């Protein structure tokens, strides 16, 4: 022990004002993002082909949650509750899950370019989806979502099996993921070019870029618990993730059960991603970039970074969904197009000015 | 509390990296581990630090097998600084050092003022106090190494294990770092490349070759002309100064290189 340090030198404990301020900034960002999330979900319910006033939206929500008994046009109420709110909730859960998975994988694999699709999940999901939609697997008994989910798990299993004999390290997982993704993407292309009609091919492309239309409450009941449980599990391991700052060996020397953390967190990230992709398709950009954006705002400690990533991801995806519905009259753009179209310039701004914030 | 290896072997896949290493670290000593590249120093250090489980034999802490102690408890007794660990994360020096408290923290015992005090003390003991709020990536190699040591110290270890701590440092920082480590009130095991450093700072030296521990003793016993020739393949004279410390003087340009040079001079190619 070092009760008596040989070279005494006064060190200021973290200045109360400084540490306090940093804490306040972080808490402020989190609360702000939460308020923003509620606001953006309300916006999502108001905006669309038919614009509904925000007041009506709030009344409808109050009617459903607390039987408030406001007099709302039943058609408006139906649009708000059955279509738009459920859609916004799924978008939020999906954005949160993808951003969270990205943050976790970037920390575990020590790679800034890691994202949830690195594990072959989106590629496998698309293969599963086209197998159902074009090849007719399951003879109509299997939904597109279930096909995508099974495809995602198969691809993840393939990547995991490939990574284990290849050395289990971060490098092995990344390379196995690249190989798995390429293989399943090639399978998807093969099926589409071999068997699809032009219309089918267009539909599949739309799905592959992410598609929230057709999302209803049962999807919320699946997506929301998955996102919340995922967040809680990842938060439980936030200190362990911090310990990976200087690599795997360093984490081990800090008392982290490295193998268990790897298995649990990669499995959680994979399941969250597989569920989200099977509901809404492979929405890109969120899982890769939102964690980096969150790091600029709240730093690299995972206790703050994980909830911040989840919140910012949720807000971002709901906002992107609003834009995708209103940007072209009478036409819904795939949300994956919007996430990258808005996200890339927004991220560029954060990248250039973010340092000032820290 | 003792730290011991008993007939330890460790394999990477099917390849034997170290075999039959037995070693007991004495409390309070500075034990140097020397040996040529690839002699198994790093592997031996990571088994000793409990990071890798031995393939054969036993690694013991306080006469208990490390397997039974558990990683978290182990981290409260052994601090490990690996070779050149770096990060791309933008973190402050204080945050980097604070990671050392990981084995003590849980949901029920969160970060407290006590942890802050330990971090400050550790920073002071490696003379990095004024750097606490600097960003990690702005530090020089020597400063980074000191921060790593401070991080290991916040684990409040009984044993501090350092794997080639002076790599890539200039001579001033090499000596400064080793002097600092020697003054710390912990038991130190350090893999060292520079044999003169081993001679200057170590109480005992363990010499490895071909994955085996071939000699263990005081620097004067281990660092002999014979050993240096047999293990490292260099010719050197050993001088013992009036304080009983040995100094190694290498003979450059001997053996092969000299022979080659002579042949070239006799048959110039230009």
TrEMBL record, chain B:
<dbReference type="GO" id="GO:0016887">
    <property type="term" value="F:ATP hydrolysis activity"/>
</dbReference>
<dbReference type="GO" id="GO:0005524">
    <property type="term" value="F:ATP binding"/>
</dbReference>
<keyword id="KW-0813">Transport</keyword>
<dbReference type="InterPro" id="IPR003593">
    <property type="entry name" value="AAA+_ATPase"/>
</dbReference>
<dbReference type="InterPro" id="IPR003439">
    <property type="entry name" value="ABC_transporter-like_ATP-bd"/>
</dbReference>
<dbReference type="InterPro" id="IPR027417">
    <property type="entry name" value="P-loop_NTPase"/>
</dbReference>
<comment type="similarity">
    <text>Belongs to the ABC transporter superfamily.</text>
</comment>
<protein>
    <submittedName>
        <fullName>Histidinol phosphatase</fullName>
    </submittedName>
</protein>
<keyword id="KW-0067">ATP-binding</keyword>
<dbReference type="Pfam" id="PF00005">
    <property type="entry name" value="ABC_tran"/>
</dbReference>
<feature type="domain" description="ABC transporter">
    <location>
        <begin position="3"/>
        <end position="235"/>
    </location>
</feature>
<keyword id="KW-0547">Nucleotide-binding</keyword>
């Amino acid at each position: 022990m070092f009760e008596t340090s040989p070279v005494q030198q006064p060190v200021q404990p973290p200045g109360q004002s400084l540490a306090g301020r940093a804490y306040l900034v972080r808490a402020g960002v989190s609360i702000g993002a939460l308020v923003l999330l509620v606001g953006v979900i309300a916006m999502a319910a108001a905006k669309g082909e038919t614009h509904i006033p925000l007041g009506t939206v709030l009344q409808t929500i109050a009617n459903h949650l607390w039987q408030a008994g406001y007099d709302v046009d039943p058609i408006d109420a139906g649009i708000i509750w059955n279509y738009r709110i459920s859609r916004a909730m799924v978008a939020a859960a999906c954005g949160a899950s993808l951003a969270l998975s990205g943050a976790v994988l970037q920390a575990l694999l020590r790679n800034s370019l890691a994202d949830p699709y690195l594990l072959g999940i989106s590629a496998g999901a698309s293969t599963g989806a086209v197998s159902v939609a074009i090849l007719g697997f399951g003879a109509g008994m299997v939904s597109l979502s279930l096909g995508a989910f099974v495809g995602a798990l198969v691809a993840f299993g393939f990547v995991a099996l490939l990574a284990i004999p290849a050395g289990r390290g971060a490098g092995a997982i990344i390379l196995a993921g690249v190989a798995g993704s390429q293989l399943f993407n090639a399978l998807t292309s093969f099926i589409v070019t071999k068997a699809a009609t032009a219309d089918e091919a267009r539909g599949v492309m739309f799905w592959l870029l992410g598609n929230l239309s057709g999302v209803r409450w049962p999807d919320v009941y699946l997506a929301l618990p998955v996102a919340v449980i995922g967040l809680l599990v990842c938060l439980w391991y936030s200190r362990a993730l911090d310990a990976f700052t200087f690599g795997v060996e360093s984490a081990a020397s800090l008392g982290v059960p490295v193998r268990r953390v790897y298995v649990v967190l990669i499995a959680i990230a994979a399941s969250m991603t597989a569920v989200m992709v099977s509901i809404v398709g492979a929405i890109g950009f969120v899982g890769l970039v939102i964690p980096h954006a969150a790091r600029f705002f709240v730093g690299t400690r995972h206790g703050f970074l994980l909830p911040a990533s989840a919140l910012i991801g949720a807000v971002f995806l709901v906002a992107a969904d609003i834009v995708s519905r209103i940007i072209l009259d009478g036409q819904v753009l795939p949300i994956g197009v919007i996430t990258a179209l808005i996200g890339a310039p927004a991220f560029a701004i954060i990248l250039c000015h973010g340092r000032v914030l820290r | 509390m003792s730290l011991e290896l008993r007939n330890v072997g460790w394999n990477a896949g099917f390849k034997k990296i170290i075999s039959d290493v037995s070693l007991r670290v004495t409390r309070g000593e500075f034990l140097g581990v020397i040996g040529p590249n690839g002699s198994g120093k790093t592997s031996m250090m990571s088994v000793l630090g409990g990071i890798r489980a031995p393939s054969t034999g036993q690694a013991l802490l306080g006469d208990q097998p490390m397997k039974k102690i558990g990683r978290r408890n182990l981290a409260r007794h052994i601090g490990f600084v690996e070779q050149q660990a770096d990060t791309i994360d933008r973190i402050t020096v204080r945050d980097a050092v604070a990671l050392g408290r990981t084995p003590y923290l849980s949901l029920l015992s969160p970060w407290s003022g006590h942890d802050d005090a330990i971090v400050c003390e550790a920073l002071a003991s490696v003379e990095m106090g004024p750097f606490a709020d600097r960003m990690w990536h702005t530090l020089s190699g020597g400063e980074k190494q000191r921060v790593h040591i401070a991080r290991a110290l916040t684990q409040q270890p009984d044993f501090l294990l350092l794997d080639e701590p002076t790599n890539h440092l200039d001579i001033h920082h090499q000596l400064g770092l080793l002097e600092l480590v020697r003054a710390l009130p912990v038991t130190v095991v350090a893999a060292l490349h520079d044999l003169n450093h081993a001679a200057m700072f170590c109480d005992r030296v363990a010499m490895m070759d071909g994955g085996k521990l071939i000699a263990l003793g005081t620097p004067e016993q281990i660092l002999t002309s014979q050993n240096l020739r047999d293990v490292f393949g260099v010719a050197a004279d050993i001088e013992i100064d009036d304080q009983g410390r040995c100094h190694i003087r290498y003979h450059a340009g001997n053996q092969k290189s000299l022979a080659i040079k002579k042949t070239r001079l006799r048959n110039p190619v230009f």
